[in-house]
Amino acid sequence: MGNDEGKQFVIKTLRQYEPLDHRSTHAKVALVVQLQDLATAEDAEVFVPYLDDHADDVQFQSLQALEQLADESTAEAFTKVCTSELHGGRVKRRAAEALCQLGWSVKKSWGDFDDELKDTYLLGKKGQLVHKNAPSE
């Protein structure tokens, strides 16, 4: 089985597990981690539904995969995590740090960001997140 066939198999298997399936957390984490090693930017959208998984471990691993792929078309998914009441602090902080590292603009949604994140980040000149204690741009 080649890399592309293997990747397609992992994608197909992951999609069999719904984000709200409470019984498959470990399987989803393992599949997301495996797919992260095989995926390219064209596969980024596969991870987005798992940002809304009931388990924060699945959410966290999906964020890591999306950050690694660095496909800016998923920036809105990161900001949605940062502004949602449904995500825990650890996941929100991970999403914000990824946005900061990737340098993607969050200007349009900054006003809705979680207050804890606003305690850590500022909005940079280009609309990107900047650590409050970071040197000026």
Q: In one word, what is the shape? A: globular
Average pLDDT figure: 94
Number of strands: 2
Strand order of the largest sheet: 1-2
Largest sheet: 2 strands, antiparallel
Q: What proportion strand?
A: under 5%
SS field, number of helical segments: 6
Low-confidence stretches: none
Task: Work out the radius of gyration.
Answer: 16 Å
Classify the secondary structure makeup into a structural class.
mainly alpha
Q: Cα distance, first to last residue?
A: 48 Å
SSE string, helix = H, strand = E?
HHHHHHEE
User: How much helix, percentage-wise, in residues?
Assistant: 40-55%
Reconstruct the topology from this structure:
Blueprint: H1 3-15, H2 25-38, H3 56-69, H4 75-83, H5 89-102, H6 115-120, E1 121-123, E2 129-131
Antiparallel strand pairs: 1-2
Helix pairs in contact: 1-2, 2-3, 3-5, 4-5
Textual characterization of the structure:
With 137 residues, this protein is mostly helical. The protein has six helices and two strands. The chain has a two-stranded antiparallel ribbon. Strand 1 (121-123) and strand 2 form a beta hairpin. Helix 3 (56-69) runs parallel beside helix 5 (89-102). It starts with a helix and ends in a 6-residue tail after the last strand. 28% of the residues are buried.
Give a quick set of tags describing it.
mainly alpha; two-stranded antiparallel sheet; 6 helices; globular; 2 strands; 4% strand; 137 residues
What's this entry about, in short?
With 137 residues, the chain is mostly helical. 51% of the residues lie in helices and 4% in strands.
